[in-house]
């Protein structure tokens, strides 16, 4: 098997495992996520456990790759540290959080929902793509006006 085929296979298995994890944990259910954000009502704190589990698994992965410059499949590892916190980061983070809080969906679960053929996933992904286009138009306008 060629290296690119192996990389694609690992990506497919990883994505499938991630999707099943979202389904199994209930994190693909927008109502479950929205109930986590409902601090005035019946708050469901299980999202914290899912996040802690993700942090644990990711920490192990980072620890295994700490001194490496490539992954086990030979892909380069980008360990560049962010250089600054700027307006784009703050605005993007705020928009992501607001969207997540309003819809109860973030990109991972949106793909799961779309894969299940549910309208919410398609609507969310369409909205994200529309946001990308709007951002590109605004950024292009700012650059052409020499404001960056």
Structural topology:
Blueprint lengths: L2 H23 L4 H8 L8 H19 L22 H17 L3 H9 L3 H26 L4
Describe the structure.
By secondary structure, this protein is an all-alpha fold. Helices cover 69% and strands 0% of the residues. Helix 1 (3-25) packs across helix 5 (107-115) and helix 5 packs across helix 6. It is globular, with a radius of gyration of 19 Å. The model has no long low-confidence stretch (mean pLDDT 85).
N-C termini distance: 46 Å
Report Rg. Answer: 19 Å
Strand content: under 5%
- Count of DSSP H/I helices: 6
Q: What class do helices, strands and sheet pairing give?
A: mainly alpha
Largest sheet: none
Helix content: 55-70%
Brief sketch in words of this structure:
It is built from six helices and no strands.
Provide the descriptors you would attach to this structure in a database record.
148 residues; mainly alpha; 6 helices; 69% helix
């Amino acid at each position: 098997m060629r290296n690119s085929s192996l990389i694609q296979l690992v990506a497919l298995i990883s994505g499938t495992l991630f999707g099943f994890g979202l389904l199994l944990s209930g994190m693909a259910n927008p109502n479950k996520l929205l109930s986590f954000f409902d601090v005035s009502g019946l708050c469901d704190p299980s999202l914290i456990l899912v996040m802690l589990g993700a942090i644990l698994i990711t920490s192990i992965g980072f620890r295994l790759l700490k001194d490496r410059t490539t992954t086990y499949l030979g892909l380069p590892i980008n360990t560049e540290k962010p250089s600054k916190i700027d307006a784009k980061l703050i605005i993007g983070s705020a928009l992501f959080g607001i969207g997540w809080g309003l819809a109860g969906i973030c990109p991972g679960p949106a793909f799961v929902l779309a894969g299940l053929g549910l309208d919410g996933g398609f609507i969310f992904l369409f909205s994200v793509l529309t946001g990308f286009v709007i951002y590109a138009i605004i950024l292009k306008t700012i650059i052409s006006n020499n404001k960056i």
